[in-house]
Specification:
Length: 199
């Protein structure tokens, strides 16, 4: 009985954490600009994606390397910014799944899939977020079109081609910031977000 109660407590705590993360991710009760901790948004997004990051029979866990700087609260549409993080991270995971085809578990363990998230303050007035992966990278043609509406490299029925276009709009129009992509075939991709600290 005591083991069953302990197990229920663990399960209840996990459910509580997921619900709080979903609430933090969506920020449905916050339609206006609000000063928030960006790291909380990133962590909520990672928790929601945990089922895709964790180890599977065909591959080890996707490693997430955090290089967080101390950030002040940032004035932003938090829910929309979290959606940008989600779109970039999902694309990285999808790219890993594609590039892992034909590689053994042992090969992937020796050279694991990695996502690196780095945050920093630039000139005391801009927040920089860099999300990079060590995946297969993109050709120059794909990179040049990555933010075009309806452009996708995924098979028919797998993607709408709107995720990165919407992300670009959220960063540049809603937050007066910049979103760029750097990528080289065989060396992975990096998305660089910069938004003003105050709107």
């Amino acid at each position: 009985m005591s083991k069953m109660i302990a197990s229920m407590e663990v399960g209840t705590q996990r459910i509580r954490d997921i619900v709080l993360s979903l609430r933090n991710f969506s920020r449905m009760d916050e339609a206006d600009f609000k000063a928030v901790n960006l790291h909380d948004g990133i962590e909520s997004t990672l928790l929601i994606l945990q089922f895709r990051l964790k180890e599977k029979t065909e591959r080890p866990e996707i490693q997430v390397i955090r290089e967080y700087s101390e950030l002040p609260l940032v004035e932003c549409y938090a829910g929309q910014l979290n959606q940008v993080f989600m779109n970039i991270l999902v694309n990285a995971i999808d790219a890993f799944e594609e590039s892992n085809i034909g590689r053994t578990f042992e090969e992937l363990k020796a050279h694991p899939n990695q996502i690196r998230i780095k945050t920093q303050v630039i000139d005391n007035q801009v927040i920089g977020i860099r999300i990079s992966d060590n995946g297969k990278g993109m050709s120059e043609d794909v990179r040049n079109r990555i933010f075009d509406p309806f452009f996708t490299t995924k098979p028919v029925g797998k993607g709408t081609g709107m995720g990165m276009a919407i992300s670009y709009q959220i960063i540049t129009e809603k937050h007066q910031g910049t979103l760029e992509c750097i990528s080289t075939i065989g060396q992975g991709s990096e998305f660089i977000i910069q938004i003003p600290l105050k709107q």
